[in-house]
Write the structure tokens for this entry.
Amino acid sequence: GPAWVTAGDWITGTPYPIFNVEDPDRTIFTDYQVPYYPLVYKICPDKKTEWISTSLNTSQLYQKVQDCQTLSIEEEILAGKIYIDQLNKNLIIENYDQVQSIEIINLQGQKINSIQSVTSGTIDIHTLETGIYIFQMNTEQGPVVRKLFMN
């Protein structure tokens, strides 16, 4: 059959076909005697998955899917800055609330330093050699990752 139709999901063992419900040819419902959607899952851009009740009518079903939050970065995270003060060899963190920890990783993936208690917006990094580093900062709003050059 068409590429959008399969004989079922061989992983979970469901006998129901997997098909494109948007296709105008709805004979697949009749062929398999499926008067409703047996299993409907909503998978949002933020990777949250939710089983949707098949008792919903079509417009309710579409509304549930539309309710996915768009994948975005909160404005609080966008407002912050992370950069290296090359003159004083400090990592500067501005406008981030409640930084929990910072990990410094080299481009080989090795963790160079892990700072668990961040009490200031200025962190001494004078021991780092010249090179590019990945700074992963864990905040209450989520992780923030930056790739920065140490001169």
User: Anything to note?
Assistant: The mean pLDDT is 76. Residues 75-150 form a domain with the Immunoglobulin-like fold (CATH 2.60.40.3080). Strands lie at 40-43, 49-52, 81-85, 90-94, 99-106, 111-115, 122-124, 131-139, 142-150.
